[in-house]
Amino acid sequence: MKRRQFVLGSALAGAAYLPITRVWGADSARTGADLPARDLSGGEITLAKGDISDLARSLQGELLLPDSPRYEQARRVWNGSIDKHPALIAACMGAGDVMRAVSFAREHKLLTAVRAGGHSTSGKSTCEGGIMIDLSPMRGVRVDPTTKTAYLEPGTLLGQLDRESAAFGLATTAGTVSNTGAAGLTLGGGFGRLCSRFGLACDNLKGADVITANGQFVHTSETQNPELLWGLRGGGGNFGVVTSLEYRLHEMNPVVIGGMVTWPWKYAREVLDFYAQFAPAKPDMLCTDLFLRSAPGSDPTVSIVAVWSGPPAEGERALEPVRKLARAAQGTIAPTPYVRLQSMFDGGFPDGRKYYQKSGLVSVLTQPLADTLIDLFGTPRPYPLTMQLQGMGGAASRVAPGATAFVHRDALWDMAIITHWEDAAQSDAHIAGMRAVWARLEPFTKGFYVNSRYEDDVKAFRENYGDNYPRLVRLKNKYDPLNLFRLNANVVPTGGSS
Question: What is the mean pLDDT of residues 100-128?
């Protein structure tokens, strides 16, 4: 089978997204008016109606303008606190559409956002007054069990990858919430419940198709344009729009030993002390995450999620210390389909709810950090708060810092805090409260996961990429000297602007 063939589901996904005829694209072309927009520096520009009509007619997918019937639906992203209005939304059906949209953005120097799954917490997958290149219609997975490879279109969600791979007794690292977009997670690094066994998601990315800022198609693999693949493995969307991803899959029983156990808050100190010693020494086939939760009107809790993906008998021995501690806990760790575990948190992260998140990487769960966490979560506050120590280590730590753009191989956890709310009037107060919480936790971190960063802080991004930054700049100079793709953990080209 050809490398870029996809399952029928890909075509069906696109069919569900678009009408048989491009009704809205045609409507857009008949608006009969120039359109105000914003350029790369945020300045006001005007797009000529003729140019807009030409773009609309060139696309297989839709071109949505603010007066298009489906615009309001299409501009929304997962995080409901993000409320931006692109001047144009190019809903792409394939790489050809992406090439045309990128060329249009470059020619007009338009502020450009790229949406794949749309799950960027910070809202970098959309923009105000620019163009959103929307890849969500491009959704599909094909697994080749002979080569143990998965081929994904860029709008694909993690649950699709997990389920299709599991059907063949295969798996790869793919996050912890199944409705997350695969492309964005992978390009930023990509944690998950198989991280210590198989490495980061980006470590398993073995090829990609990319539309660069000049509108050209480039394929990258470990043998073809390998330097670009190096940059995609943790360098985010800095170098172009990825229109296809190839993942290395691994043999794994689709039924694992896993689950979550939760203790009352009075056991918090005991659980944290246990986890600080147990997690760094556990075998690679056991992946664990630690959670602290608090909510108005209820007592805080502490939880451990464990997933053993190896031989069952060995798993019972590896899990024995957790089971012993869990005698005072609720919940079970038992044989469970892996795809079911991967969706266990989906209900807690519904689309459209308002979220705010902060995160940083941690190498040691020290006593002062444990003290701070216990104090923070034991203090009542008017909004829910969740902290996750998402496990890394193992195979992820044995990759050299310079082998991929993701440099933080000494980190054992990503420490992320997140809150949510419904009432927009509460946004400022909740965000301010979260920033105060993070001000106490950030000193215990070193570096951060680029997918969780809100601030557009070029200095912070430069420092975060460490010794890999000059190499990333060289790639940026080659593939995006205009810095068209800047709504990300931005690598600024030489002589370019942020």
Answer: 96
